[in-house]
Amino acid sequence: MSKLVDNFGRQISYVRLAVTDRCNLRCQYCMPAHGIDIVPRKELLTYKEMYRIVRVLTELGVNKVRLTGGEPFVRKDFMSFLEMLSFNDLLDDINITTNGALISNHIETLEKIKKVKNINLSIDSLQREKFAKITRRDVFPEVYNTFELLEKSNLNLKLNVVVQSGFNTDEINGFVALTKDKDIAVRFIEEMPFNGNGQRETNENWSFNRILEEIKSQYTITKISSEKSSTSRNYSIEGHLGTVGIIPAFTRTICNDCNRIRITSTGTFKNCLFDDGVFNLRNFIRNGASNEDLKELFLSLVKEKPKDGFEAEANRKGNVTESMSTIGG
Ligand code: SAM
Ligand code: SF4
């Protein structure tokens, strides 16, 4: 079987798929207050198209998918799509990134879908008012309820915390404290300029090292080994059930071992978060491409995967301004 291997010998085994560009929140770092210009529904990939794309990718060695968006749970029948996807026998893991505001009713069902193992819940503040300021929606109680339900469930839970200068840096160690009694991974993400052209004024630069220093100011941490392709550098703290991690999303020191590709909700294939999209799969499929055509295409597209996010950014035609909701974070 042919495998997806790029020109640097990296084998691609993970696809991040944005199931929609729509979202029920308006996070300041992701989009402007009025939201982004969403595309007409017919321009979004259908579930059947997504299933087929993932199936072909798994026949080329991909064994994990992360479903993201936009907010995946705002798309109608998302739960049915999860079940459909779980029938793909070549897929080992279906992971989901969510803001958690719409999912408390679905957790029991999610636990029953065997391939759904890891949920990343985005939560940037533990204070209701601050949370509402960041997300521009007053949904903290519902998100926190989801957090508690997920923690009790059999799903692995990671919290995604985007570190935002002037908003939530004073809460970093409050989040770390959660790992004392909870078996969760708290991961701090460097903020990136993918905000759909929203205005962001940042006075301070909270990059990986600064976040690490902040944690070290209160805790003694020990580096733990993670999967080679992990997006975060991870640490344990003596006496804590959970772990903490930092994702150098902007300083990009993790690209060497990248095993990922992305597909946006409109079917744009991306080799890197920082490239501006290399191929439109939706049009290719709608123009009658066969599964063999798709395979050939994927095998050649990954050969264009840039060495790292800096090279990808340098090759772009425009600046980095699109929303993470469009790209699929
Ligand atoms: N709506 C879902 C959510 O918020 O979890 C999934 C999509 S969201 C785009 C995926 C992840 O990207 C979230 O954890 C979010 O916090 C993160 N994200 C969005 N914009 C970002 C930015 N400008 N910099 C860093 N992370 C960002
Ligand atoms: Fe929506 Fe997620 Fe973007 Fe927030 S980060 S606006 S929840 S897509």
Automatic annotation (TrEMBL):
Residues 7-227 form the Radical SAM core domain. Its cofactor is [4Fe-4S] cluster. SUPFAM superfamilies: Radical SAM enzymes. It comes from the Bacteria. InterPro entries: Aldolase_TIM (IPR013785), MoaA (IPR013483), MoaA-like (IPR040064), MoaA_NifB_PqqE_Fe-S-bd_CS (IPR000385), MoaA_twitch (IPR010505), MoCo_biosynth_MoaA/MoaC (IPR050105), rSAM (IPR007197), rSAM_sf (IPR058240). GO terms for biological process: Mo-molybdopterin cofactor biosynthetic process. Gene3D superfamilies: Aldolase class I. Keywords: 4Fe-4S, GTP-binding, Iron, Iron-sulfur, Lyase, Metal-binding, Molybdenum cofactor biosynthesis, Nucleotide-binding, S-adenosyl-L-methionine. GO terms for molecular function: 4 iron, 4 sulfur cluster binding; cyclic pyranopterin monophosphate synthase activity; GTP 3',8'-cyclase activity; GTP binding; metal ion binding. NCBIfam families: moaA. This is Cyclic pyranopterin monophosphate synthase subunit MoaA. It comes from Tenacibaculum adriaticum.
